[in-house]
Write a structure and sequence with these properties.
The structure holds 2 protein chains of 2 kinds. By secondary structure, chain A is an alpha/beta fold. Chain A is about 35% helix and about 20% strand. By secondary structure, chain B is of the alpha+beta class. Chain B is about 25% helix and about 30% strand. Chain B contains 2 helices and 6 strands, in the order H-E-H-E-E-E-E-E. The chains are: A alpha/beta, B alpha+beta.
Chain lengths: ~325, ~120
């Protein structure tokens, strides 16, 4: 099952080269009460949240076919007829009716992380990368911060030093993967459709197709978004958050989850710093206030400032991993 | 709106564990620093549970307050304490870690046993 936020599931996700969408024939879009557009897979032809709430009459009617359900369902349905209200408006009545009904019940401990499935796939990815000495980096930022520009320059300048490849995540288009491929580096595009972040299973599919070389660096450019990508482990070695000087230096405080879980913050577009109100020192202070161990670098991908530090950080990661796993290094 | 996708996970996890039995109540643990809004989860739950074993289930969300602890001196704050601005207020190093507040866990469910 997909955990794509605010939308449907992996049926919407396209990995370049894959056969494409599959089975889900009942998909449609509707608009929630808050205006959010949601693609839905329910059979009922609801056009909004209101319709959704009424639609749950169908399963009740259906349940009457099953004898053993009567004990529970009579009081349940009775409550509905009596006050004409909906299940969720009335949760207490449901429980009480059920208790009066003496239907035996048991308490089952689950203790399961909500993101457990994603986490398991992420750990599998991490093991796959470690076994091949692939250093996978999850690059996250808001849209337009210059992730692709930084990568294009990095791929050009480090070409020949060690193999590199790129997974590009965007809702639509292969524009970014095309830009990357112009540098000669292998790249694959994931289109998340309505989804606003990458998940571990999407990366797994992309990596199977991309087949990054042993000892390489794999850059995963997440969907531009400072919120939910931070929740989803992809199995990366390190997380890099990119912040450009044309944004606000208070971003680390406004989006603390993203910065708290990052290993490195790169401030980009430093060539524009004299022209904007962005205070780089304050931005880094803010990042450290939510994440005391975060490393901070400042670069201009167009002018070249700070790129040697960024390359040094990449080389250090490769070296550390090669020492830790000598068998995997090439 | 990542709550909708995550709530689908919740319903899937509980439905699987229920193995066809009806679910009366679900306890969900959400850290106050988890980036998940309890109200949004409740709203999504009402939509997502339709037609599932959780259709009539009550959802109880248990909030977990944030807490932190210093890796160097062991000093801690919380639950509910403000996190250090930068350094640990006890020893001055910046090596404190969040210890709670980011939970996203399905704790338990109450299911009808088959009669």
């Amino acid at each position: 099952m997909c955990v794509t936020c605010g939308c449907n599931n992996t049926a919407d996700v396209r990995v370049e080269g894959d056969a494409g969408g599959h089975e889900h024939e009942h998909e449609h879009e509707h608009v929630l009460a808050d205006g959010t557009r949601v693609r839905h897979r329910h059979e009922h032809p609801s056009a909004g949240a209101e319709a959704d709430r009424h639609a749950h009459a169908h399963p009740h009617a259906h349940d009457h076919d099953h004898d053993h359900d009567h004990a529970h369902h009579h009081p349940h349905d009775y409550a509905h007829h009596r006050d004409g209200d909906h299940a969720h408006d009335d949760a207490h009545q449901h429980s009480h009716a059920a208790y009066r009904n003496d239907a035996p019940a048991e308490l089952v401990a689950l203790e399961t992380a909500l993101l457990d499935k994603n986490q398991r796939i992420a750990e599998r990815n991490r093991g796959w990368f470690a076994g091949r000495g692939v250093v996978a980096l999850n690059l996250m930022s808001s849209p337009g911060s210059g992730k692709t520009t930084l990568l294009v320059r990095t791929l050009r300048e480090l070409a020949g030093e060690f193999p590199m490849s790129v997974v590009e995540g965007d809702q639509e288009t292969s524009a970014d993967a095309d830009r990357i491929r112009e540098t000669g580096a292998p790249a694959i595009q994931i289109n998340t459709g309505a989804g606003c972040h990458l998940e571990a299973d999407m990366l797994e599919r992309a990596v199977q197709r991309l087949a990054p070389q042993a000892g390489s660096v794999l850059f995963v450019e997440n969907v531009g978004n400072l919120v939910c990508p931070s929740l989803f482990d992809l199995g990366e070695r390190s997380r890099v958050v990119v912040l450009s000087v044309t944004e606000g230096d208070d971003k680390p405080l406004k989006y603390p989850h993203m910065f708290r879980r990052a290993d490195l913050m790169i401030t980009t577009k430093m060539d524009l710093a004299p022209h904007v109100a962005f205070d780089v020192d304050r931005a880094e202070r803010n990042a450290r206030s939510v994440n005391p161990t975060i490393r901070c670098l400042r670069v201009s991908s167009t002018r070249g400032d700070g790129l040697q530090q960024w390359y040094g950080w990449l080389r250090a990661l490769r070296t550390i991993d090669a020492v830790a796993r000598p068998a995997a290094a090439t | 709106m990542h709550e909708l996708g995550i709530t689908r996970n919740l319903v899937a996890i509980v439905s699987d564990a229920a193995q066809g039995r009806r679910v009366r109540k679900v306890w969900l643990e959400i850290g106050t620093r988890s980036a998940l809004l309890p109200d949004a989860v409740r709203f999504c739950f009402d939509v997502v549970r339709q037609g599932t074993a959780l259709e009539a289930a009550e959802l109880e969300i248990v909030a977990v307050e944030a807490g932190w602890q210093c890796s160097d001196c062991g000093g801690f704050g919380g639950p509910g304490a403000a996190q250090p601005a930068t350094a640990c207020p006890h020893c001055g190093t910046a090596r404190w870690r969040r210890r709670s507040g980011e939970e996203l866990n399905v704790k338990a469910m109450e299911v009808e046993t088959c009669a």
